[in-house]
Amino acid sequence: MESVRRFFDPPKASFFLFGPRGTGKSTLMRELFSEALWIDLLEPDVYRTFAARPERLRERVEGRRPGEDVVVIDEIQKVPELLSAVHALIEEKPGVRFVLTGSSARKLKRSGVDLLAGRAVERHLHPFMAAELGERFRLEQALEEGMVPLVTESADPADVLKSYASLYLREEVQMERLVRRVGDFARFLEVISFSHGAVLNIANVARECEIERRTVAGYMEILGDLLLSFRLPVFTKRASRATASHPKLYLFDCGVFRSLRPKGPLDRPEEIEGAALEGLVAQHLRAWNDYRGGENQLAYWRTRSGVEVDFVVHGPDGFLAIEVKNGKTIRPADLRGLKTFHVDYPQCTPILLHRGRERLKQDGVLCLPSEEFLREVHPDRPLLEAV
Fold first, then answer.
1. Is 290 helix (H, G, I), strand (E, B) or coil?
2. What is the domain extent for residue 35?
3. Among residues 124, 157, 182, which one ends one of the domains?
4. Distances (CA, A) of 278 to 62, 130, 136, 155, 248
5. What single DSSP character describes residue 14?
6. Phi, psi of 73 (to 5 degrees)
7. Contact of 138 with 160, CB cutoff 8 Å
């Protein structure tokens, strides 16, 4: 497959690049820094060398070839002890730039180095955006397979997607000994898939898993540290109504969500499809905001009486309220949350995304085809320009 140009501009100074497995961190860094001194901690012999002697990093940097002014350490979380050496080298050698990639910040944050105390900025790489794929983006395919490059660029996406969760269980959870009982964590992953795009209730998840609430809370922390999930807070700025207090949960990719979500005779396909579409929009909004510098707040809105808006985007790039509906026709009830929110916040632009093909305006709400909107979401411009 032809290489996809990613919406990522590397900082001029040293930086961390975090992202879930398979999002293309290593591929992108090799493209951007083809002349770099490369240390791949996923290679067993390299890992053993640096785990035993972190100080060897200094020897490698001192002995680097002319022109190797960038040092890439791939999957830095495998040997967090290297951060102390990196920290010292950044101070001593201002002409050397370090690029530190990782699929988990858990061990790094607990290593006591505090991510180099601000000496290296933090960036994130997300699954593909529709605008990155251009004409290759197909909404139906994205809803089935997700947007993780490892999956979408494989010869058998369905098979790779099926093994994605087990890869994490084996390599990140079991090998790093993050949990005592891997079977319990595997069951938790299945149960938590039902919370994708929903208000998170840890007590309910614990009851479904038949695991202690405290253990589930720990699993949720691991899920976030492994970059497999994210949460949206409730939008409460100048609230005139009582709002919900719990965040909404999303798995980082809609294809990964579908691979974890059990299917049975009692499961309605449209329910799973709707959650996948909402998740696809969520991951696009998150990537758009991150690549623009993260200055906008992403949230959702829900009143105590149950009136809800899926997404609220508020910040220097505008004020939007976005509702996602999986249907091809728009019913008056579909607009209720947006209209209520617009009464409280008349400054916002209310938008409804649907599965139909027509652009409409109903009761002051702009209704757009989901695929058209996703294609236009680009980090080089404010979100309003996507409409």
1. helix
2. 15-124
3. 124
4. 50, 15, 21, 27, 12
5. -
6. -110, 110
7. no
Q: Are 220 and 95 in contact (CB under 8 A)?
A: no
Q: Is residue 114 part of a domain?
A: yes
Strands 349-354 and 318-324: parallel
**Mean pLDDT of each 10-residue bin along the chain, 387 residues long:** 84 94 94 95 95 95 92 94 92 93 80 65 95 96 96 92 83 75 88 94 94 93 91 92 91 95 76 95 98 96 94 96 96 96 96 96 96 97 90
For residue 226, the SS3 value is coil
| Cα–Cα dist 118/15, whole Å | 9
Same domain, 239 and 113: no
Q: Which residue has the tokens 């690549």?
A: 291
Domain end among 76, 94, 124:
124
Of 225, 240, 251, 262, give the one whose Cα is nearest residue 341.
240
Q: How many domains does the chain have?
A: 2
